[in-house]
Design goal:
CATH topology of the largest domain: Transposase Inhibitor Protein From Tn5, Chain A, domain 1
Number of domains: 3
Strand order of the largest sheet: 4-3-2-5-6-12-9-8-7
Number of helices: 20
Shape: elongated
Radius of gyration: 34 Å
Number of strands: 16
Distance between the termini: 36 Å
CATH architecture of the largest domain: Alpha-Beta Complex
Largest sheet: 9 strands, mixed
Strand content: 15-25%
Helix content: 40-55%
């Protein structure tokens, strides 16, 4: 049935989709309010001045920086378009329902949005985000006693020639985590709590060392007066150095980090732990295989004392060398052991093939005496030895006739003189004992922790906390998806940093929506359609957004007035609003969207 009655003059159809829900959460976090409090309103333009002189009605004011930020965050959440395309994107939305009748898409020009990014940078993105996180902790009771840190590189294309005195991070060539040394990059550091909610992010020059980014995060977190005695900072091997460990201990945070393979101390700890076979170590975790055919995965470990060198920070910036007692958790993973074992077998096969080719070349060399052949074989064994393979040498004697000095068949009475040559012979076989020793070292890694391992803080908890490092990596995957971070065409460092702030707030919104819907579904024992419409209690925000596709607001303008109708609404939408504790008429009453909860 048509929505257009006989007296209708105009019909407009605008998308709502998931945007009212996302905007409601942004307003619970007071994102726009925090920004507009810190950023002064824009000065009146020439049109306002001319209208005042002529006594004409003042033009509507441009959207505030907070409103521009809300629009850009919603756009990033949906997939992100360039700033110059924001007007076109907003024309398809029910903008008046989201921000009021005084706001229209034509006001979100690329100049206005770019000036909003400049204003964000000037106000201090770090300060603004700290206030947003404070609101998050207050409203949603988020725990921050376990923090995960990591860095990644954000790539860009094109020229980025900016003045030397321009403030903000610079895109330069550096070590590429995406293995693209041909592209300019920034270094993006991210600290999240155990549920993946970002607590702190920084965007820095593309050649900044990971350890420097990590130390800056520690200093910023310490300035927020978090309870250090109850906070564990978890990071990968880049944090296992004297400066970072010293800063962590001086701040008071506990830490768990992976000990790099380059540490000689790591090898000593593994040797000490292997004095007992891994089968006798304490069991830390046990999980089924990823498929029914895969074996059960088991983690076992041993806790050993460990003394680490620190560099305690002081006022002169040099630091004071000292030592401190830590605990090392040597972990054996059956899953990792199988992967290492397979890789080791493939690596040994490649070395065996290379060795056999070299031996074939050696077999062709002639020696004048047996001693020379034996010496050549000994040198070869010494220089080309491969762990896990044994080579046995012997000398073969061969009598050969020299080549004729001239053409033709020799005469019957002319017997060519014979000569004896010696060749080195090498046979390769598996060194089963060495392979067995190497096999015992497969699947091992060492975690360094400042925690005292005891009953209320067992070794299994340390392993589980480190395995939670995936939450920060998942955040990187979301930020670096093609629809989010690419393309970055803003060539002003200040705007780039402000854009990084928008990415982080959007990631916070994405993770918060996912956290709240999963908690509500678990508490109420309900389900919602997930991927492929399969019922689930752990939907992603992306799958939740798909449920609201094709929810439109249809406005019919007639001679008798204006009427609106919500199209595409289904019972599942009422269920989601109830689970997220949002007003049931959120979509039907625009005032509920625009009014802060």
């Amino acid at each position: 049935m048509s929505l257009l009655p006989d007296e209708a003059e105009e019909v407009s159809v605008r998308r709502l989709d998931f945007l009212p829900i996302a905007l409601s959460f942004l307003r619970k976090l007071r994102v726009a309010e925090i920004i507009d409090t810190a950023v002064p309103p824009p000065k009146p333009g020439p049109q306002s001045t001319l209208a005042q002189v002529l006594g004409l009605p003042l033009p509507p004011p441009p959207p505030s920086v907070g409103t521009c930020v809300e629009a850009m965050i919603l756009n990033v959440l949906e997939g992100r378009v360039a700033l110059c395309q924001m007007e076109d994107w907003l024309r398809g939305l029910a903008v008046d329902s989201l921000w009021g009748a005084e706001i229209n898409p034509e006001q979100f020009t690329d100049d206005r949005l770019a000036s909003a990014l400049d204003a964000l940078f000037k106000a201090g993105t770090e300060t603004l985000y700290t206030e947003i996180v404070t609101q998050l902790l207050r409203v949603y009771a988020v725990e921050c006693n376990r923090l995960h840190f990591d860095t990644t590189s954000l790539m860009t294309y094109g020229a980025h020639a900016v003045p030397e005195n321009a403030a903000g991070p610079r895109a330069v060539y550096g070590y590429s985590k995406d293995h693209r040394p041909d592209l300019l990059q920034w270094i993006f550091g991210l600290t999240v709590q155990h549920e993946g909610l970002p607590i702190l992010s920084t965007l820095q020059d593309g050649n900044t060392a990971d350890s420097l980014v990590q130390r800056s995060h520690l200093e910023l977190l310490a300035a927020r007066r978090m309870d250090p005695s109850n906070t564990t900072f978890i990071m990968d091997s880049k944090g296992c150095n004297a400066e970072s460990l010293g800063l962590l201990r001086s701040v008071g945070f506990h830490l768990t980090t992976l000990m790099p393979q380059t540490f000689a101390q790591r090898q000593a700890l593994i040797d000490q732990a292997l004095q007992q076979p891994p089968e006798t170590w304490m069991e830390l975790a046990r999980r089924p295989g990823e498929t029914n055919e895969d074996p059960e995965r088991v983690w076992r470990g041993r806790v050993l004392p460990c003394v680490m060198d620190l560099r305690w920070p002081d006022s002169d910036g040099e630091g004071t060398a000292c030592q401190a007692q830590f605990r090392a958790l040597v972990v054996h993973s059956s899953e990792l052991s199988m992967a290492h074992e397979q890789a080791a077998c493939e690596r040994l096969d490649r070395k065996r093939q290379q060795l056999n080719r070299a031996i074939s070349r050696l077999h062709k060399i002639e020696y004048a005496c047996e001693a020379d052949a034996q010496a050549a074989a000994a040198r070869f064994i010494q220089e080309a030895s491969v762990p896990g393979l044994q080579m046995h040498a012997s000398v073969a004697t061969e009598t050969i006739a020299p080549s004729q000095p001239r053409r033709g068949r020799p005469r019957k009475d002319q017997q060519p003189p014979l000569r004896t040559v010696y060749r080195a012979r090498l046979a390769v076989q598996d060194d089963l004992e060495a392979q067995q020793v190497e096999s015992q070292r497969q699947g091992l890694f060492v975690l360094l922790t400042s925690r005292i391992v005891e009953d209320h803080y067992p070794a299994s908890r340390i392993l589980a906390e480190y395995q939670g490092q995936e939450v920060v990596e998942a955040g990187f995957r979301w930020i670096k998806s093609p629809g989010q971070v690419a393309p970055i065409l803003l060539h002003t460092p200040a705007r780039i940093e402000a854009l990084g702030f928008l990415f982080t707030v959007t990631l916070l919104l994405y993770r918060l929506l996912q956290r709240e819907i999963r908690r509500a579904l678990s508490a109420s024992e309900q389900t919602v359609p997930g991927p492929n419409r399969v019922p689930t209690r752990r939907p992603t925000t992306r799958s939740l957004m798909r449920l609201f596709h094709e929810v439109y607001l249809v406005r019919i303008q007639t001679d008798l007035g204006s009427r609106t109708r919500l199209v595409g609404w289904k019972p599942i939408h009422d269920q989601v609003l109830a689970l997220l504790r949002l007003p049931p008429d959120l979509y039907r009453n625009p005032e509920k969207i625009r009014t802060p909860p």
